[in-house]
Every structure is written in C-alpha cells, then in structure tokens.
Amino acid sequence: MRSIRVPLVSMRPAFGGSAATWVLIQQVLVRGLVALKFLAIGRMLGPAAIGSVSVALLSVAIAESLSDTGLAQAVVQAKTTPTRTELGAVWTTLTTRGALIALLLIALAPLMNAQFHLGGSLALLQLAAALPLLRGLASPAYYVVQRERRFQQLAGVEISAAFADCAIGLACAWGGAGAYAVLLGMMVGESLKTGLTWTTMTPRPPVRLAWHGIGHYVNFSRWIWAGSVVNLLLNQFDKVLVAKLLGPVALGAYQMSSKLAQMLLADAAIALGQYLFPTFSAHYRREDGSAARLFIRCLALITVGLVAIVLVLRMTAGPLFMFVLGPAWMSAVPLFRIFVINMAIGAVIAILVAYLRAIGAPKAATQASVLQVIMLVAIVPPATHWWGVTGVAWAMTAGLAASAGWMLYRTVKRP
User: Fold this and answer.
1) Count of structural domains within the chain
2) What's the CA gap between 124 and 275, in Å, rounded?
3) Which pLDDT tens digit goes with each residue over 312-324?
C-alpha cells in the first residue's frame, strides 16, 4: 500500500529566539514563582508581616519612580543600536542612581518607621535599600537584548532569578526569618540577575565612570521620567493612605488582595507588553502601517479575554481566598472584587503604553496619567468620606478608566 504522508508543522518558529512563546513561558514561570512565594509566606505570617514588608517595598518603589531616567526604554525605542561607549554612560547613570537611592532610603528609614507605625521594623526598611543598588549594577546590555527581541535569552535570566528568589524566600520563611524572608529572597534573585546580565549578554559596556554620549536619549526619556512620577502618585497613593491611616495590618489585607488580582490579571499583560514594546517598535520602523494593525488585533483579543476572566473571579472570590490564604484574609474579599476590575483596566493600559512608546509618543501616556491624577483628586475625598477604603478602590477604577480612554483617543487622533 502506498504510504500516506502527513506534513509535520515545524515547531522551530514557535520556539525561535525571538518567538512570543518565550515571553509566555517567562510569564507563567516567573509570575507563578512570585505567586507561590507571596501566597505561601502570606499564609504563614499573616497580614501584619505582609504589611510591614509592603511598606519597605513601597519606599523602594517611590524612590525608583522619582528617579526614573527612562534610559532603558530609550535604548529599546531608538532607531540606532547604542555603542559600547553609550552603554557605558547608561551604566554609569543607572549605577549612580541606584547607589543614591540606597543611601537615601537608609537615611529616611527612621522617619518612615515612625510615620507608618512599624514598631521594630527599622532594619527591614534599611535592608530594602539594597534592592535599587543591585538593580543599578546590572549591565545595560539587557536592554540591547530586549531591543533585539532575544526573548529566549531574557526568559532564561528572568526565570533563573525568580527561582532563586522563591527558593531562598520560602527557605528563610520556614526557617523563622519572618518578614525578612521576602527581602532576602529578592536580594538573592536580583544579585543573580545582575550577574547573568554581565556573564551572558553582549555587548558588555566598559566599567568606568562616563557621563557623556547619551544626550540624544533625553528627549524621549524625559517623558518616561514624567510618566514615572505621575504613576508614582497613581500606583502608591492608595497604599500610602491605607498604611498611614490604618497601619500595617490593614495594609497587608489591602496589598494582598491587590497583589492576587494583579497576579491573575495584570501581570500577564505587563509581560505581554514587554514583548509588544520592541515588537511594535520594529514594525513602526518599517513605516508600512503594520504596527497599527498589530496593535488593533492584540487589543481586541486581550479585551475580550479580560472581560471573561473578571466575571469568573468576581463570582469565585470568597472560595478563592479561603482556599489560597485561609480565614485570616477573608476581610479582603470585597476589595479583591474591585481590584480585579482595576487590574483588567490596567492590563489594557499596559498594551496602550507599549504601543504609544513604540511609535515615539510617550507624551500621550504621561498625559493620561495626569488625567488620572486629576480624577483621583476630585473623587477620592468624597468617596473616602462615604465608603471608606472601598471608596478609594472605586475611585481608582474611575481614574484608570479615564486614563485608558484618553490613550485610546490618542492612538486614533495622533498629531
């Protein structure tokens, strides 16, 4: 009999070095490890410990946002690949920034300890200062790899760092390190990632102090910095308010409900944005309209999927918290039902920001963030008066919706 040949579909394109498959694998493994770490430590230690470490991480986030140079995004978006000399200047800038942030956090730790009612958590705040320094020491070749869409290599580095973070964090928690376990795991993970950027990625910049050669990045990066400052108000305002008024226990419940919603919704879109930003940029450089067509397809598919996921999570919120975190966390369920909506809108915003930055319009994303701030200033006071912390969460929803609406408008009505 004549044999029948069935054509085989090559898997090579799906697992090529620049394939989106690697972004998906990275997302699933990295976010899965982060979820395992935080949920396991949260169940072991309870809201108070999570609230204390959240304040420490909040201080890092505030300092990094206020000093964001935008150089990473500028390297990815630029029309020409940076030279080794330019990368040396980028490394000098980022390392200096990390060192200054670390020193500032150490100096301000006693003040923050008093303001957020942390009691004996001064050392926790000071330990967190090591994180921005470790990140600043990393090689800027990482951004060149991202620019060239070598997602397989990026996935290897990120997954290795996440595994080290999770393993050390859980080991320290089981060993009785308490809230310090979260930071110790993060420090080991960041150290490994920094080391891998120097040993596995090229071109390696010269290790010397050099400040000149990156002036052409400033016009683009200044809008990234402005956006980071505005986003600082948007992303950390509610946490600062809860921590200041209600203390670490309430912040722990608030933060965990937000974190769980982020893990289930926004993290996937953020990871997809890491793939889409250089991909949109590459299509935009062709000047054939392919970037806009790709953007429309991605946005439509993501929006439909998010709506379905939000409906399911809102219906199953109570059993989910009981199963994952236990009865100590049930007070966070009403907030979680709001946060899944917020994170879904945030997921859409992540795609919009990736596209606007790729087409050289980061200003539009910054304008959207300013609009969101205006909404919050107008809505938060009355909402807090009438509905308390739940009102703050709904005010965030309104601000996110306004921000997403403005960016959608700007993608259609480009100047």
Assistant:
1) 2
2) 34
3) 999 999 999 888 8
